[in-house]
């Protein structure tokens, strides 16, 4: 037991000495400056994800889930929706209901629909309402080039972080050296349901507000 404790103490001392050696250069401590920078851009969403729920209970069991799905498919096709590429099944479920007529099984299906502009989204909602399908909503919005935009924003944020460091070091008469640490700060979703707002409405001529894509980085530079 004593031998194991001694080994642990020696290992701890070695790790501390290594850290100290890494922070020193010719007897001088390592000096650095840390900055945080954030950049963002506004884009018009071109990927709008909708949720459509077909539930037999909404029609009190008078219309089957299959008939509701047929009505939906017909109207979406008329709107120019590619059923194979843009419509996916998210969930299938069933519930039991007891009544004077006995026990009844009510089925429910949840779909995910992708559309590319606000006007189409509104036309979908209006068309489904005409078919007695009122449970359709917009879940989230994004942009097709989101990943590409985020990479560019990261580059801009790093450059901004260095400019910030240089501005802070200049009054001290010090020059900013190479970066010794870089990290990005996780960002949330581009747009959620609570942040979706329409800019104008003329019939079904609707536009969503632009959505913000942002990136933030933390950087340390040697002084």
Describe it for me?
The protein has helices at 2-23, 65-78, 83-86, 118-130, 146-169; strands at 24-25, 28-29, 32-43, 47-55, 87-99, 102-115, 136-142, 179-185, 191-192, 198-202, 205-208, 211-222. With 223 residues, the chain is of the alpha+beta class. The protein has 2 domains: 26-44 and 145-222, 2-Layer Sandwich (Translation Initiation Factor IF3); 47-142, Alpha-Beta Plaits (2-Layer Sandwich), CATH 3.30.70. It has a 5-stranded antiparallel sheet. A 3-stranded antiparallel sheet has the order 3-12-8, covered by helices on one side. A two-stranded antiparallel ribbon has the order 1-2. The longest helix is centred in the last third of the chain and has 24 residues, at 146-169. Residues 1-25 and 192-204 have low confidence and may be disordered.
Rg on CA atoms, Å = 29 Å
The amount of helix comes to 25-40%
* Overall 3D shape: elongated
Distance between the termini: 46 Å
* Largest sheet report: 5 strands, antiparallel
Fold-level CATH name of the largest domain: Translation Initiation Factor IF3
Oligomeric state of the chains in view: single chain
* Number of DSSP strand runs: 12
| Number of discrete helical segments | 5
Mean pLDDT: 79
SS strand fraction: 35-45%
Q: Which class do the helix and strand fractions yield?
A: alpha+beta
The first-level CATH class name of the largest domain: Alpha Beta
CATH architecture of the largest domain: 2-Layer Sandwich
Order of H and E elements: HEEEEHHEEHEHEEEEE
Q: Can you tell me the residue ranges where pLDDT is under 50 for at least 5 consecutive residues? A: 1-25, 192-204
Q: Strand order across the biggest sheet?
A: 5-6-4-7-9
What would CATH call the homologous superfamily of the largest domain? Protein of unknown function (DUF541), domain 1
């Amino acid at each position: 037991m004593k031998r194991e404790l001694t080994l642990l103490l020696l290992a701890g001392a070695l790790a501390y000495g290594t850290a100290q050696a890494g922070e020193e250069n010719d007897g001088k401590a390592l000096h650095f400056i840390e900055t945080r920078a954030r950049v963002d851009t506004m884009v018009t969403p071109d990927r709008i994800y909708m949720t459509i729920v077909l539930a037999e209970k909404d029609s009190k069991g008078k219309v089957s889930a299959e008939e509701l799905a047929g009505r939906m498919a017909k109207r979406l096709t008329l709107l120019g929706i590619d059923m194979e590429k843009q419509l996916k099944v998210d969930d299938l479920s069933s519930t039991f209901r007891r009544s004077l007529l006995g026990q009844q099984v009510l089925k429910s299906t949840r779909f995910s629909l992708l559309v590319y502009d606000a006007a189409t989204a509104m036309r979908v909602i209006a068309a489904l309402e005409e078919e007695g399908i009122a449970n359709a909503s917009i879940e989230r919005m994004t942009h097709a080039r989101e990943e590409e935009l985020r990479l560019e924003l990261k580059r801009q944020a790093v450059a901004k972080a260095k400019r910030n460091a240089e501005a802070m070091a200049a009054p001290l008469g010090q020059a900013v050296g190479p970066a010794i640490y870089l990290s990005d700060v996780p960002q949330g979703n581009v747009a959620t349901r609570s942040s979706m707002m329409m800019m104008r409405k003329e019939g079904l001529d609707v536009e969503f507000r632009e959505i913000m894509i942002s990136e933030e980085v933390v950087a340390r530079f040697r002084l």
